[in-house]
Specification:
By secondary structure, the chain is an all-alpha fold. The longest helix is centred in the middle third of the chain and has 99 residues, at about 5-105. It is about 80% helix and about 0% strand. The protein contains 2 helices and no strands.
């Protein structure tokens, strides 16, 4: 028994229809579920990209703020160094004044009992003398 062309065509049609039906019943629902999951993943990726962009902008702003803070910190350090130098000079001047007062003769600044005065009284006498000297000082004109 040999199969005729019509038989072969009928078998072919039955097999193809069976495959198509199997694809529609078994495979297509799985592909549709996978497509839905891929769509959800794409949305999540887009949201993550937006969040990453926002974070990048924030990091950039923080870097800019950090640079500004570094500049301000450098300026502040220079100011503190300047103040520290001036404070050291004042401390040295005060030390010299105390040494001068300690070693001054008994009749310093026209006060006969200078060595017996309290430090506060000595500073008052010294302050008056400085004011007197300052009043006598006349700066020379520069050309």
């Amino acid at each position: 028994m040999s199969l005729t062309a019509a038989d072969l065509q009928a078998i072919k049609t039955v097999v193809i229809d069976g495959i198509n039906e199997a694809i529609e019943v078994l495979i297509l629902p799985r592909f549709e579920a996978l497509e839905a999951k891929v769509a959800l993943l794409c949305q999540a990726i887009e949201q993550l990209n937006l969040q990453v962009t926002s974070l990048e902008n924030r990091v950039s702003a923080l870097e800019h703020s950090g640079s500004i803070l570094e500049l301000r910190m450098s300026s502040l350090e220079a100011t503190i160094e300047s103040i520290d130098g001036r404070l050291q000079a004042v401390e040295n001047d005060i030390t010299e004044i105390y040494q001068m007062l300690k070693q001054s003769p008994r009749h310093a600044f026209g006060v006969s009992n200078y060595s017996r005065l309290t430090n506060s009284q000595k500073l008052d006498v010294l302050s008056r003398e400085i004011v007197r000297l300052q009043a006598d000082f006349k700066p020379t004109e520069r050309q």
